[in-house]
Amino acid sequence: MDILGIETSCDETAAAVVRDGREVLSSVVYTQIPLHVPYGGVVPEIASRAHVEKIVQVVREAIGSMRVDAVAATYGPGLSPALIVGLNAAKGIARGLGVDLIGVNHMEAHLHTPFLVDPGDDSGSVPRPEDAMPALGLAVSGGHTAWIDMPEYGKYEIMGQTLDDAAGEAFDKAAKLLSLGYPGGPKIDAIAREWFALHPDGGDLVPFPKGRPREGVSALAGLPAELCVSFSGLKTALLRYVQSQGGADALVERGEIPRVVASYQEAIVGAVADRTRAALRRKSRKSLVVGGGVSLNSRLRSALARVAEEEGARLFVAKPKYCGDNGAMVAALAYFKRTPAGEAAMSLDANPSLEVGE
Ligand code: KG4
Ligand code: ZN
To answer: Sheet harboring 135-140: ordered strands across?
Structure first.
């Protein structure tokens, strides 16, 4: 079964055709990043307009001369004006082709990315999702940071999450403050990598807070503090530190940026790794399945590999090209989880705050 997947939840206009939830026949991603660079973050109205301008071309390129058996689209979570573009396009295409529409949850789709197979891959070396279950899922991107229990494939339960900023957002905001450019994650990763190459023992890092929420705060909404993060304090700590040092320019002049950036990244990586370990200790799971743009972070990848090994879980992370937003993850998940579909999907509205397992 070949499914066309469409993704427009944030700043990538993407479409792909995936066979039987696994084999990526085509994948086209048009990134809007250059449009958002002047603003240091994604501007929803600009994103929406750019999706409208690009969606037809991206879908055409992905389909080529193929025939598809169903159309899938992300309907949440994400930016409402952006989601609407992909969802409406998918509705029109499904009607036009006379095939089913399937609605897909963006976070759940990120957790499918380690199971995608490219033509030419040895498919035996890529696990089938059901073989990786039960698993702990970690969705870590610009919009989300959540630990999700997956007792079996297609079942999701949030164990912990961020109470405010997502990890990617924390990277992007710090980069903006330090004038490093947008998106901040890759820039901070590159600068920090140089720092750690020069200081294999970590070096003299600034002791930024590790984002552990206080027990009992209402924002936890019943989730355990040891499985949640809060990055707003970290962001404020960075701001205060920069001010106390005479501002970002002064740090640049003194060559202090690599140390500050590495310290900030270490606080985020430490927080994410720590909560992951706590989640695996609470529920011993066969695998740790990681998806989302921040899983590209080199330091986070090695920290998670260490945690998984120590906790006896196998680590599954997507190939770099499937870590960020893409249509393949949408098409693939739709094959495994065919709901909501048909007329129920046709009447779906974009849901910016859709939860996993809804
Ligand atoms: O998954 P994604 O493409 O979009 C969302 O669903 O949010 O993730 C984008 C986020 C951005 O915040 C970006 O800064 C972050 O992923 N990111 C990284 C790295 N590459 C991208 N964060 C840390 N290290 C990286 N190497
Ligand atoms: Zn995403």
So the answer is: 157-161, 145-150, 135-140, 287-291, 314-317
104-142 tens-digit pLDDT: 999 999 999 999 999 999 888 898 999 999 999 999 999
Low pLDDT (below 50) residues in the chain: none
In this structure, how many other beta carbons lie within 10 angstroms of the beta carbon of residue 171? Answer: 28
User: Amino acid identity of 298?
Assistant: S
Query: How many angstroms is it from 11 CA to the middle of ligand 1?
Result: 11
If you measure from the C-alpha of residue 255 to the centroid of ligand 2, how many angstroms do you get, rounded to a whole number? Answer: 34
Q: Which of 357, 354, 350 is nearest to 8 (CA)?
A: 350
Count the neighbouring beta carbons within 10 Å of the beta carbon of residue 197.
Answer: 8
Domains, in order of start, for the chain: 2-116+322-346 (3.30.420.40), 129-317 (3.30.420.40)
The kind and range of the H/E element at 90 are: helix 80-97
Closest atom of ligand 1 to 106 CA is 6
Q: Per-residue pLDDT tens for 194-207?
A: 999 999 999 999 99
